[in-house]
Amino acid sequence: MFVTEAYAQAPGAGGGASFIIQLAPFLLIFVIMYFLIIRPQRQRMKSHQAMIAALKRNDTIVTAGGMIGKITKVVDDAEVEVKFGENQPVRIVRSTISEVRAKPEPAAND
């Protein structure tokens, strides 16, 4: 006949090694994801927290909404008072600050 009988094979003696080989792609994906996604995000968070902690009066900042202002008063650990233009100062949460701009140096008289 053309059909042969199929027999079940007994598991091999090296079952532990094949399990590690099956897990290797998942471990490799996790390691790549750690170095490409998780680690850089942690570094950005640390640098942002250091920038927020170093805020002081007269720093020019950019908020997350894109507004540029100057810090007039540091209220507490969570809030600062910012002046946008010539208007009344506004209290904002420190975590909404996305960038601290360097103070411009005065031009030299020639």
Structure, described:
The protein is α+β, with helices and mostly antiparallel strands. A five-stranded antiparallel β-sheet has the order 4-3-2-1-5, with helices on one face. Helix content is 35%, strand content 23%. The protein is rod-shaped. The longest helix has 39 residues, at 15-53. It has one helix and five strands; from the N terminus they run H-E-E-E-E-E. Part of the SecDF-YidC-YajC translocase complex. The SecDF-YidC-YajC translocase forms a supercomplex with SecYEG, called the holo-translocon (HTL). It holds the Pfam family YajC.
Task: Please specify the SSE layout and strand pairing.
Elements (H helix, E strand, L loop, with lengths): L14 H39 L6 E4 L4 E7 L4 E5 L6 E4 L3 E5 L9
Antiparallel strand pairs: 1-2, 1-5, 2-3, 3-4
Write a brief caption for the model.
By secondary structure, the chain is of the alpha+beta class.
- Characterize the quaternary organization of these chains: single chain
Overall geometric form: rod-shaped
How far is it from the N-terminal to the C-terminal residue, by CA? 105 Å
Percent helix range: 25-40%
Subcellular location: Cell membrane
Protein name: Sec translocon accessory complex subunit YajC
Keywords: Cell membrane, Membrane, Protein transport, Translocation, Transmembrane, Transmembrane helix, Transport
Transmembrane segments: 19-38
